[in-house]
């Protein structure tokens, strides 16, 4: 039931079934709501994104190899018995067991409705956001690779740069700038996208813009001394060879200190002209997670510390999974596979009768 309350909407807690409030719509949350038993509990999902996105294919959508809709599944389709609210969760009140949210959409006047959702069990699965490390100009001038809207922007920008470079009167210097594509970050996303982009530009676009090919460059910048540092050295070397074979210029041991609307500035003063800059330098906690960590004395890292049953240390009836969490003394890699398995595990745990009132490391684990 909904009722007007203090200018917003308040969702009442049911007396019949416990309310499981899931924050997020990524790999962990999506897996959870596919498995959870909605006959045993009322499930509400709050997320600014009303769909699940198959993120490993994002680089392919940016160049048009795969269409966007192939990656998406609406939350309301994932489980038709789950309630969904398109909003940002902003304030967690662990004492009253409520979450204050604000709608993503706004009225013509600019007013964004706010509302409060009470819960019996809270599941935090909001993932992480792109880390900029405070480098000036990154947010304003770089593209990212986290959401479908990011790849839409990249795809549009790629087309614009080639069309501008093809116009009569465009100088050679400007063509070289427009057709220099810079990827910052030598992790899995940066490596995959730079390779995908180079293949696309030198294969597909060669037929459309043959006269522009001499001006095209794809550069991958990495601050560490090698790429894919979190993987086996043999795999990293193989990836390095493959990228170089496709024409990607790889520079390791370089640090970006500023990004302007036309140049990437490196430590030491070197400036690189670019037409498109994609930033893929790891992740950082979202504000909601940071505020929750700050409110719990038992928490002291950048991720929510959880026990093996995914219960947040220091909180009651709060569980966390996916990239925003880390199991104490048993960290798992931040991959889609791990997040999906955690989501399914947590749903099965709730289905088997998770006991409300349990806290991480403070009481007997749920059966």
Tell me the span between the first and last alpha carbons: 31 Å
Strand sequence of the main sheet, in spatial order?
1-2-9-8-7-4-3-10-21
- Main beta sheet strand tally, sense and closure: 9 strands, mixed
- Poorly predicted residue ranges: 1-9
* Shape label: elongated
The portion of residues assigned to helices is: 25-40%
CATH topology of the largest domain: FAD/NAD(P)-binding domain
Rounded to the nearest angstrom, the radius of gyration is 23 Å
How many DSSP helices?
10
Number of DSSP strands? 22
Structural class by sheet pairing and helices: alpha/beta
The CATH architecture of the largest domain: 3-Layer(bba) Sandwich
Total tally of structural domains: 2
- The whole-number mean of residue pLDDT values reads 92
Account of the protein in words:
The chain has 367 residues and is α/β, with parallel strands linked by helices. The protein has 2 domains: 197 residues, FAD/NAD(P)-binding domain; 144 residues, FAD/NAD(P)-binding domain (3-Layer(bba) Sandwich), CATH 3.50.50.60. 29% of the residues lie in helices and 26% in strands. It has 10 helices and 22 strands. The strands form 6 sheets. A 9-stranded mixed β-sheet has the order 1-2-9-8-7-4-3-10-21. A 4-stranded parallel β-sheet has the order 14-13-12-18. Helix 1 runs parallel beside helix 10. The chain starts with a strand and ends in a 16-residue tail after the last helix. The N terminus is likely disordered.
């Amino acid at each position: 039931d909904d009722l007007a309350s203090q200018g917003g909407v308040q969702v009442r807690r049911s007396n019949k079934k416990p309310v499981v409030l899931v924050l997020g719509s990524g790999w962990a949350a999506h897996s959870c709501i596919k498995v959870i038993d909605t006959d045993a509990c009322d499930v509400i999902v709050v997320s600014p994104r009303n769909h699940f996105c198959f993120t490993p294919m994002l680089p392919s959508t940016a160049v048009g190899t795969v269409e966007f809709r192939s990656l998406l599944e609406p939350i309301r389709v994932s489980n038709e018995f789950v309630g969904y609210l398109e909003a940002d969760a902003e304030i967690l009140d662990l004492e009253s067991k409520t979450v204050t949210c604000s709608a993503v959409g706004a009225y013509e006047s600019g007013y964004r409705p706010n509302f409060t959702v009470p819960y019996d069990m809270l599941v935090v699965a909001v993932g992480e956001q792109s880390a900029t490390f405070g480098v000036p100009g990154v947010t304003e001038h770089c593209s990212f690779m986290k959401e479908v809207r990011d790849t839409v922007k990249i795809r549009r920008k790629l087309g614009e740069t080639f069309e501008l470079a093809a116009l009569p009167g465009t100088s050679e210097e400007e063509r070289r700038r427009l057709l220099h594509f810079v990827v910052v970050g030598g992790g899995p996303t940066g490596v995959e996208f730079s390779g995908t982009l180079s293949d696309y530009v030198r294969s597909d676009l060669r037929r459309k813009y043959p006269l522009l090919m001499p001006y095209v460059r794809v550069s991958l910048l990495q601050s560490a001394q090698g790429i894919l540092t979190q993987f086996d050295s043999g795999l990293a070397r193989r990836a390095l060879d493959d990228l170089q074979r496709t024409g990607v210029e790889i520079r390791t041991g370089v640090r970006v200190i500023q990004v302007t609307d036309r140049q990437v500035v490196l430590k030491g003063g070197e400036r690189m002209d670019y037409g498109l800059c994609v930033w893929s330098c790891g992740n950082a906690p979202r504000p909601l997670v940071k505020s929750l960590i700050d409110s719990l004395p038992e928490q002291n890292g950048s991720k929510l510390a959880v026990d093996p049953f995914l219960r947040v240390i220091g909180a009651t009836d709060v569980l966390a999974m996916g990239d925003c969490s880390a199991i104490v003394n048993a960290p798992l890699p931040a991959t889609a596979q791990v997040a999906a398995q955690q989501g399914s595990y947590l749903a099965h745990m709730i289905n088997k009768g998770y006991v409300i009132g349990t806290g991480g490391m403070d009481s007997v684990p749920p059966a």
